[in-house]
Amino acid sequence: MKTMQCKWVTAPRLAGSASLIAICGLYLVGGAASNRIPFGPPIHLISVLRQLRWSDLPSGNSPFYLFLAAAVAAAVIYAISKERKVRRLAMVGGLLLPLLWMGWSIKGFAAWLLAIPYAAVFSLTALTGEADGEFYNEGTLVYAAIGWWLLYCVVLLCRDRLAARATPQRDSPLESLQSRTSG
């Protein structure tokens, strides 16, 4: 019996999709936790998840969802595009997206630069149960999700760059037409 293979389902695409789903989940949990969890003693992430409700998410007209939609759109454009330039542009846009949200200031730029290293620290703090109510109330998980998103964009840009180096450069359609007509 012959098995059918789908060329769209590959290990890197599955890993990228799982990463994107995890980042979006952390972003949504962080947004809901910032509205639900009061200041108080340390609380484990599992306990936070048990307390959350859909109604705890920010209101519908919040820029919170605009960032999420733009990030998902950039990831989808990267995934479906066959052109390297379009994929790179989507991920560069994805890298700049948090900077736009954090503000074009020195403080916003510093927060943007520190988001990647702090993502792991803040995620581990929540997972180990060392985070208190203030941690969740101030939206630190949202910031961690933004750091993971930036790392996601950097990894995809590097992956695309390495793939470009591994494959030989083809002539543009105009150059190949000129070489056929002149020779």
Entry keywords:
single chain; 183 residues; 0% strand
Q: What is the ordering of alpha helices and beta strands?
A: HHHHHHHH
From the spread of the alpha carbons, the general shape counts as elongated
Secondary-structure-based class equals mainly alpha
What is the strand content? Answer: under 5%
- Write down the overall mean pLDDT: 82
Largest sheet: none
How many DSSP-defined strands? 0
Descriptive overview:
There is one protein chain. It contains eight helices and no strands. The chain has 183 residues and is mainly α. It has one domain. The model has no long low-confidence stretch (mean pLDDT 82).
Which secondary structure elements does this structure contain, and how are they paired or packed?
Blueprint (H helix, E strand, L loop, with lengths): L10 H26 L8 H7 L11 H18 L3 H19 L3 H22 L5 H5 L2 H27 L6 H10 L1
Task: Write a brief structural summary.
The protein is mainly α and 183 residues long.
